[in-house]
From TrEMBL:
InterPro entries: Cro/C1-type_HTH, Lambda_DNA-bd_dom_sf. Coiled coil: none annotated. Transmembrane segments: none annotated. Residues 15-71 form the HTH cro/C1-type domain. One of its GO terms (molecular function) is DNA binding. It holds the Pfam family HTH_3. This is Helix-turn-helix.
Amino acid sequence: MAQLTEIEQYVIDKVKEKRIQAGLTQAVLSVAMDLNPKFVGNVERSKTDDKYNINHLKKIAEILGCSIREFFPE
């Protein structure tokens, strides 16, 4: 497994923050994204090579009702 970059960790942390604020579990968000129920958990734990791509982030923003820009630093 490769080390996460600073921006990758930032995105993961922001998605997690927004997910928790929305009251969604990792599994619920994964299924809403039409992915394996363990996907979000794998990304957040960084124990696998699973990462969010731009399409994942677009879908997450739609599910959480926010802008994709909220997942990135200024």
